[in-house]
Amino acid sequence: MAAAFSSHLPALQVVLALLAAPLCVVLRRPGAAWMIATVITWALLAIAMVLLGRVLETGTITYALGSWPAPWGIEYRIDLANAFVLVLVTLIGSVVMPYARASIPAEIEEPRIYLFYCMYLLNLAGLLGIAITGDVFNLFVFLEISSLSSYVMISLSRDRRALVAAYRYLIMGTIGATFYIIGVGMMYQVTGTLNMVDLATLIPNLTDNRTVMVALAFLCVGLSLKLALFPLHLWLPNAYAYAPSAVSAFLASTGTKVAVYALARILFTVFGGSVLIDDFGLQELLVVLAVAAMIGGSAVAIYQSNVKRLLAYSSIAQIGYMILGLSMASVIGMTAGLVHLFNHALMKGGLFMVMGCVFFRLSSVQVEDMEGLAKRMPLTMAAFVAGGFGLIGMPLTAGFISKWHLIQAALEKGWWGAVAVILVSSLLAVIYIWRVVEAAYFKPPPKGAAEISEAPLSMLVPMWVMIGMSYYFGIDATLTLDITTGAAETLLGGIQ
What we know:
Blueprint: H1 2-7, H2 9-27, H3 30-58, E1 61-64, E2 75-78, H4 80-107, H5 113-132, H6 136-155, H7 161-191, H8 196-202, H9 210-227, H10 236-242, H11 245-270, H12 273-279, H13 282-302, H14 307-327, H15 331-362, H16 373-376, H17 378-392, H18 398-413, H19 416-442, H20 457-475, H21 478-493
Antiparallel strand pairs: 1-2
């Protein structure tokens, strides 16, 4: 019995959240919906960790839905790369849920809170589905599930500007999905299959086929919109700035990260990326876009007065780091990109949680409204400083580990210019982090400022857990580097 149940864990990783989402609508009670979402998320984290352990022990896991073997049926295929992403998504979701208990009622009207938990579970199912599926059309289905639920979660905010942000995201996301599905259709027209294993064996021999190359272009544009790669990032700043803080923390830590994984999977697994990148000039294009994101995102962040918007532009820059690592098409470069994917999720999730705590007490996240805040909310602002050190890349932080390995990868390739860009972007991060630190620590509170206290423990503890993890994996990065190195070798080595 236990063995039979255990064999269905790959399906349960997605199905549990899909089945639980309608329960939140049926019950309509915020407390019950929160309890369901929390229990399911922690159960999914346990399943993800079991699956990662199995992959480390026995290798790639395959699961045929409905016992229909691939390529006729849909296959879930779990290797070290997507097992790593499954753990990341469920880990972030598990920390966000306790935080949401107090944060969500402060930013979403009570009659609509149950909708948030329903959409959250759908989003979680979509993100996990993107990571676990071995079918390119099924990836599109899960991409749309996660996107549609994201639009709703953003729009639920009391701030009316969130509606405009969600609508813009919807338009851009729909364009991205359309590009992706056109690319899938073109691949199917040429190969007659949607299964990634089949495609990985067929497409490397079809690189002189114009339809396949056009399909690749459509897939890259579609996924680049989803991951907010410069210059296709215009939806992201407002979406993160005006969404409820728990939503910003969750989406910033998971949504774009899963899309980066999907792009890597398409490029390196389906299209055999190493040869493709060298032969078709894709490497140069990715490097240019990554550098533009790193410098442009950091530079624009400096001028933001809304700190959530500042962090959103910072995310655009950090996505540039990940794409730079992927573009190197080497094990050390891919490892640096993947480990930064994990580390940035922890740092940025923690920083958006900080802003949620600030908003909970101030009803504002403007820099000028945070003057003198360090004396009134010392634990919260200390967390911001700690998370900011990670974005800058200070030693003992997870951000340092990412940037150190990215610099090593660039030096291995002889890309001295990339090293300079990494250092310049880090210096720009010092400036935008300092703006907030200066206001909170070195300026007096505004005249007549009300006395406030720290946010509830249910918000402070998850916030510090997230920041604490970013330091733990900065001090001892053995586990994350071992897993991401194996994941990089898996992606670069093709289907095993």
